[in-house]
Amino acid sequence: MSENKQQATWGGRFEDKPSDLMLQIGESVSFDCRLAMYDIECSRAHASMLEKVGILNNLELKSILSGLEKIEEAIESQDFKWRSDLEDVHMNIEQALTDISPEALKLHTARSRNDQVATDMRLWFKDACVTIIGNIELLVQNCIEFSEANAQVIIPGYTHLQRAQPVPISHHLLAYVEMLVRDMNRFSNVWDSANVCPLGSGAIAGTTLPIDRLFVAEKLGFVDDEGEPIITQNSMDAVSDRDLFIDFANACATAGVHLSRLSEDFILWSSSEFGFVRLPDAFTTGSSLMPQKKNPDGFELIRGKSARLIGNTQILFTMMKGLPLTYNRDMQEDKLPVFDSYDQINLMLKVTAATLKGVKVNESRCVDSVSDPLLLATDVVDYLVLKGVAFRDAHHIVGALVKLSETLELPLDALPFDQVKAIDERIDEDWVSVFSLERALKSRKQIGMPSFEQIASQISVLKERFKEC
Ligand code: ARG
User: Fold this and answer.
1) Cα separation of 386 and 409, whole Å?
2) Which of 94, 135, 310, 443 could form an SS bridge with 349, CB 3.0 to 4.6 Å?
């Protein structure tokens, strides 16, 4: 054997060592080392299976398992020396194991790095989804807390960023809770898709050796609700499927878009123009030049990072779209966007939750902003509809009233009644009773609408659901 001996996994048929540049472009251990614990778990299960089918004897298994334990300890205590010349996490661990226990030369029997990395990643995805769902739950709790603490505050709801109709601020926040609950479902679906074991698919076409795929799957926890193991059904698909990566990155991107929209709302609300809220000092920054500034950097960065999450999905789609079956080395690049999306979405969720805890609502600014009777113009339309006026006609009549209020430079509810009556005689003097926020919200009493009663009952359902988080 030549100097390639250190490349024990594939060095046999080579005369020359890989160039330094090849090592540089080929290494992934700098980022896939975070799969180490999953890789060790896979190797434990695989070795136990090899012993079960008689490929390893019990002593060999014991030696491999104790070697893996030592490696695990070394990694945990950061004493493990990662070598980029060994390319990836799999070869680093296998090489270290072989140094400790020569029996490890048998460990890679009936296994390829192709099904190994697919399995490691599926284990990683399952944990990743659980962590993200936990962080979403925390944010949901904070949204609920915010809604309860500001239960009586009413603000204008906006369409086209123009004042539209009054809504309790809690209704606005609970809209985000709906999005976040859907996000949780998306991650739970990703968890389900990840819960299928590809190990045993080998490089592309399985193996001639008498392995036991179900045993490995069960050992690694790829099981259904009844505890039955779930395994992939096509070895070629199993080593080259990256749908899961795309689904995960998409779930992160969608959650990121929700956080970005929430951030944008709070950025607007904290501006002097709106003035509905004050953001906590801890999540804002000052200007090096303008002493009066308090900038909403935390929320702005969340908005910015959401672009990065969308970009990560694009990387994965673009990387996969032209690849012939099955494994191609391009796919080594799949981990960077996925890890990045995971890191960023967790940070974004934590920052949003923590910021929300410190937000103070400026109630008087909110009261001022909903005092404009124009916000209840639609309710005047409804008033006319209840008097039997056709909706289109009613809309037109109220449009004329709005025009009159602009012409006379008077608030809508202060128009002289004779001029109001002149626009449509079906309007009675009691029309001004429409201009009550309390009445406006109280009447919106059906499921999904912003009456205080509806919101309170939604909050109690949500609190029950999320109380154990
Ligand atoms: N580090 C590789 C990756 O992440 C592992 C699979 C390598 N397979 C191969 N045939 N070179 O994709």
Assistant:
1) 28
2) 135
Domain C-terminal end among 341, 368, 395: 368
If one residue of 201, 239, 329 were mutated to test the ligand 1 pocket, choosing by the most ligand atoms within 8 A of its CB, it would be 329
Instruction: Find out whether 7 and 27 touch, Cβ atoms under 8 Å.
Output: no
Do 146 and 22 fall into the same domain? no
In this structure, the chain runs to a length of 469
The per-residue pLDDT for range 190-247, each reduced to its tens digit, is 999 999 999 999 999 999 999 999 999 999 999 999 999 999 999 999 999 999 999 9
- CATH number for position 449: 1.10.40.30
In the structure encoding, which two tokens stand for residue 24, read together?
A: 């540089």
Q: Based on the domain organization, do 239 and 269 belong to the same domain? A: yes
In tens, the pLDDT along 412-465 reads 999 999 999 999 999 999 999 999 999 999 999 999 999 999 999 999 999 999
Give nearest CA residue, ligand 1 atom 2: 332
Please state, in angstroms and as integers, the Cα–Cα distance from residue 357 to each residue in 206, 255, 352, 422, 446, following that order.
Answer: 53, 20, 9, 52, 30
pLDDT at 1: 38
**Residue of the nearest CA to atom 3 in ligand 1?**
332
Residues with CB under 6 A from ligand 1: 28, 32, 88, 113-114, 117, 327, 329, 331-332
Q: Quick: pLDDT tens for 3-12.
A: 444 565 677 7
> Last residue of a domain, which of 328, 345, 368?
368
Q: Can you give the CATH number for the domain in which 103 is found?
A: 1.10.275.10
Q: Which two tokens stand for residue 138?
A: 């925390």
Residue bearing the CA closest to ligand 1, atom 7: 113
Pocket test for ligand 1, best of 35, 87, 114 (most atoms within 8 A of CB): 114
Residue-number span of the structural domain to which 429 is assigned: 372-466
